Amino acid sequence: MTRTVVSALLSHWMRNPLQLVTFVTGLALATALWSGVQAINAEARASYDAASATLGEGQFDQVVPREGTSIPLDRYVALRRAGWLVSPILEGRVGSVRLMGLDPLTAPGGLSPVTPGGETPFLEFLTPGVIYAHPDTARALPELALRVVPDPALAPGLALTDIGAAGRLLGRDDLSRLIVARSQPLSRPPLASVAPELRLEPARQTADVGELTESFHLNLTAFGLLSFAVGLFIVHSVIGLAFEQRRGVIRTLRTLGVPLPRLVALIALEMLTLAVLAGSIGIVLGYVIAAFLLPDVAATLRGLYGAELTGGLSIRPEWWLSGLGIAVLGTALASAGQLWKIARMPLLASARPRAWAMASRGGQWALAVAGLSLLALAAGISLVGAGLLAGFVSLGALLIGAALLLPPMLALCLAGLTARARGPVSQWALADTRQQLPGLSLALMALLLAIAANIGVSTMVGSFRLAFTSFLDQRLAPELYIAAETVSEAERIEAFLIVNARETLPLARAQTVIAGEPSQILGIRTGPTYRENWTFVASGPAPWDAVAAGSGSVINEQLATRTGLRVGDEITLEGETLTVSAIAADYGNPLGQAVIDERIFAAIWPDRPALQFGARTDDAPALRDALIAKTAIPASAVTDQSDLKAFSLAVFERTFSVTAALNVLTLAVAGFAMLMSLLTLSDLRTPQLAPVWALGLTRRQLGRIELARTVALAAMTAVLALPLGLALAWLLLTVVNVEAFGWRLPIHFFPGDYLRLGLYALAAATLAALWPAWRLRETPPSRLLKVFAHER
Amino acid sequence: MNGRICLCLIWALLALAPLPAGAQGFAGLGTDAEGFATPAPDPDFAFPQDHGPHPAYRIEWWYLTANLTGPDGTPYGIQWTLFRSALAPMEAEGWRSPQVWFGHAAATTPDAHYATERFARGGIGQAGVTAAPFHAWIDDWSMQGASLNTVSLTASGPDFAYELSLNAQGPLVFHGEDGFSVKSAQGQASYYYSQPFYEVSGTLTLPDGPVAVTGQAWLDREWSSQPLADTQAGWDWFSLSFDSGDKLMGFMLRDRDGGGYSSATWIAADGSTTAFPDGAFRADALAQSTVAGRSVPTTWRVTLPERGLDATVSALNPQAWMGLTIPYWEGPVQVAGSHTGVGYLEMTGYD
After folding, report:
1. What is the pLDDT of residues B43-56, one digit of tens each?
2. Nearest-CA neighbor of A611 among A598, A594, A620?
3. How far apart are CA A124 and CA A127, in angstroms?
4. How many Cα atoms sit within 13 Å of B174 on the Cβ side?
5. Does any CB of chain A come closer than 8 Å to the CB of residue B137?
């Protein structure tokens, strides 16, 4: 008997192979998005764990010169021979690329791209030399005598090579700094007795890389959940369709004497098998998505936080199991209700497959109440709550609340339209649309979420981009940037610039801790460039005068957010007390920063002279050439502002490429959900359409009405998605961003983008509706006639 | 003894390094490639110059092992090795130098084994060897003296260090045919001589504190450009000092097909030597130990019938695994049977 029941159940899929394909595809897509995002997250976390020992040079203590940026080679040898296990680094610029030379023989674990025992071209690295760089960076490198190996795992803008090759390329025979290996011999003399002109700089606190990157992963996880929610809608509609279409078969089987428990068990087993199959396909797809996105994620994490992520993706149980689990769980959730209905179905009940599509008015009200309370919750949390988690909870409440509100809102719109409709056909069409709303509502919710997410994220990225470019314009005002290698070179450059440039802007840097937050201090020459170009988030009266007087400091927004410092508060820098005179937006780095005048800077850090200069000029190329000719600095030490801007923008664009890709995928999945629901409905609706057809509407007209109805519903959904998307953008910009990055962005609107997104959504809906409408048009009259013949 | 590691290391370095298109010749490792000099029979050594480096040869080492005893009679062993590996048959100033140096140091007690390694570029002074006065160094490790007869030896790792004085009580000895040592039936060979007669005293610092030690040490000098035949899987190398005053250097090179190639030098107490051809010396594994997750023979029966030798060689500490960039087993041994004494054993190819 079991065999017969199974073959009866399976015959449904045989007759509707397309439905089987869509069921499997829908579930697979949902699982793919979920497990893809999970795979990326799992990979990133595993990388942090594995690399916590080798997270890059910032993890190691360093030996640096007390003055200048040069260590003679013999100091290095002297330290090694005294038992100090240090490894040399030589740094410089080749065009716009930072070239870093290292010694693969002595570099502590993880720093060098090649190792003596490793499977990489170690020999070629030593001689004649190879350059490793990210593919984009590799393209930006000028023509060099060495082979360039593109390596997507490297940070943008950085090129790694052997220290000897770096010396030849940069024309130097000294070193920039030394990395101190963690494991050192039993005893060694103090640094001061071997090389008194060098000092030990302790490792940067990189332990909080996980914390920094957490927001990024939360972002990804949110996307994963969103796509899974959309996926659940798909699964729900497919399963709904499958069950409805088989009501007849099931009734027949029951009538023939199949016991209910066995029937339910077999259907559950069937669903489970399909879920595992679809889930497995989804996991494979998810792997592909993750492998495709991972290089961008890695580059983003490195660009933003300096966290290293390897390029490779491994298959980890935590993501493939969760993907499979979610697929099975989603199927179970969706089919539980249906199985319950079957279990309760009276043996001789009509197989009329409309029951599930009907929803009572009471249900609409319940949805509206639930949706409104969730919206209230979202508003409450965003006003009262603090922290990234609160931001995301409020985001989730907003999205779900809005989705629940969608059907009642649409019903309201349709009711309004029905009241104004003239003519029987349009009245029928509108009434029919309202009647179908419950069946379509899940797909429409998915569409709503997808459009809203798109609007929200594109608003965020667009606002960020505008803020960032205007920030770049402010900050990168000097036409030329010059990096000196030594103090004497810095003196020559400054002397030349004072005579030849309109304004000379020296920049000295130091690290310290302000109010418990590790921060960077910039020593500047307060002048017209700063006064005219910098805009502030908040400022006291005449902030630059206070800075020039040595009593004030301009801090960045990150520092202000994290420490709670406000304008007028006092900060202490190595014993010197200054007042916060202004707070400036800073999208350039995740660290806190304080800007002070060069005189007070020199008083606090006499051993940190300015080694970077900005120059204002009307003729940048001429000044550049004269500077190189007069001061004999290498051409690579001078950077053009426009190059720098282009480079910074390139880093920024990468940051959001992942988000954009996920966005497009979400919209595609929503379109798919739409198609599934429409297919479901179109099969169920023959009994309702047959009378209309019998009354004289042609099948062609019916098809056209179907298409128009779908497009109209999608359009209404898109319009409703706009305020939701903007609310989402507001949450992302003012809550999530502040928590994650420490900066608040002014919100900008992009009507053109929204229109385009709306059109995409309409296009997706039209595409989804085309096929069901075409099928309706092609329905054989005999099938429509059957409705009357088989009066049930 | 001790030739083996370096061959193994160099082979690993070369094998793991796909070379640029212009240097395809490296692929055939068995051939004399790339202008490196190759050892020839009837060597004419010149001292002290030959104690210094030979950059025209691909590989070279200064390899010292010592069997030591603490004040309470506890046996210890130490190893100090400086390897030179040339990427090209030349020397140059600064980072351009194609010479790569690496050092291995180890200290072994009956229940602990400490090993560490160092790497250095040639040309910048971080590592090197001068013949007169003799000075071999890498980082803070050094072997230094007015001549090779009297040297002080230091090395340090994260968990051990030693400072020893070495005094040679006998002459240099030459292996194979006057220092031309053949390593396979195909003719691979090296230049190979030793100073096996050092008396040692000094301090060995272990995690528990310093220990005053005395004992004997054996220095191997070897250089070549030819790796082993590619049919050879690994080797078992013995340097044994018998209580009678006689010494034995013997090695078995294991073929992949199960065969082998053996060679031995019998060193009388007065320093006179007898070289034995393939087959005279035999070493057969008697017992295995599980070391670093693999099975390694740590008890051997060694025989040299011509000298009436039939003895059991057993590791002082079977766990003397050198878990370095290129892993191998190296540690002190004790000899019992027809002859008694101490020595060192090195085994490679048990990965």
Report:
1. 999 999 999 999 99
2. A598
3. 5
4. 12
5. yes
Q: Which residue has the higher pLDDT, A294 or B256?
A: B256
User: Which member of B18, B20, B158 has the closest CB to residue A185?
Assistant: B158
> Considering CB atoms only, which of A83, A103, A118 is closest to B121?
A103
CB A230 within 8 A of CB A673: yes
Respond yes or no on whether the N-terminal peptide bond of residue A541 is cis (omega within 30° of 0): no
Distance linking the first and last C-alpha atoms of chain B? 20
Q: Amino acid identity, residue B80?
A: W
Which of B87, B95, B157 faces A123 most closely, judged by CB atoms? B87
| Chain centroid to CA A128 | 40
Q: Which of A89, A112, A127, A187 to mutate to test the interface with B (most CBs of B within 10 A)?
A: A127
Record: contact A173-B161, CB cut-off 8 A: no
> Which residues 763-782 in chain A show a CB within 8 A of chain B?
none
Interchain CB contact of B157 with A (< 8 Å): yes
The strand pairing partners of B174, in sequence order, are B193
Four-way CATH pick for B4-17+52-348: 2.40.37.10, 3.90.1150.10, 3.40.640.10, 2.40.370.10:
2.40.370.10
Contact list in B for residue A121 (CB cut-off 8 A) is 17-19
Q: Using CB atoms, which residue from A76, A119, A185 is nearest to B16?
A: A119
Which tokens hold the place of A235? 């699964």
Are B88 and A127 within 8 A, CB to CB?
A: yes
- Nearest C-alpha neighbor of B253 from the set B244, B265, B262: B262
- What residue in B sits closest to A188 (Cα-Cα)? B140
How many degrees, rounded to 5, is the angle at CA A48 between CA A45 and CA A53?
A: 155
Contacts of A127 in chain B (CB under 8 A): 87-88, 96, 98
B124–A127: do the CB atoms touch at under 8 Å? no
C-alpha pair distances (Å), B155 with each of A181, A602, A732, B67, B343:
17, 44, 59, 16, 21
Per residue in A716-738, pLDDT (tens digit) is: 888 988 998 888 888 877 776 67
**Percent of chain B scoring above 70 in pLDDT:** 89
For chain B, the domains span 4-17+52-348
Average pLDDT, integer, range A738-759: 78
Per-residue tokens: A184: 């050192």
DSSP assignments along A525-582, one per residue: ---HHHHHH--EEEE-SSHHHHHHTTSEEEEEHHHHHHH---TT-EEEETTEEEEEEE
Q: What is the pLDDT of residue A54?
A: 32
Optimal mutation site among A74, A76, A126, A149, interface B, most CBs of chain B within 10 A: A126
CB burial string B67-100: b at 16+ within 10 A, e below: bbbbeeeebbbbbbbbbbbbbbbebeeebbbbbb
Which residues does B117 contact at the CB level (< 8 Å), separation at least 6?
B102, B103, B104, B105, B324, B325
Element (H, E) at A621: helix A620-631
> How confident is the model over B229-271, as pLDDT tens digits?
677 788 899 999 999 999 999 999 888 888 888 999 999 999 9
Cα distances from A74 to residues A194, A487, B126, B134, in angstroms, run: 11, 20, 9, 22
Nearest to B19 among A76, A119, A124 (CB): A124
ipTM (interface predicted TM): 0.89
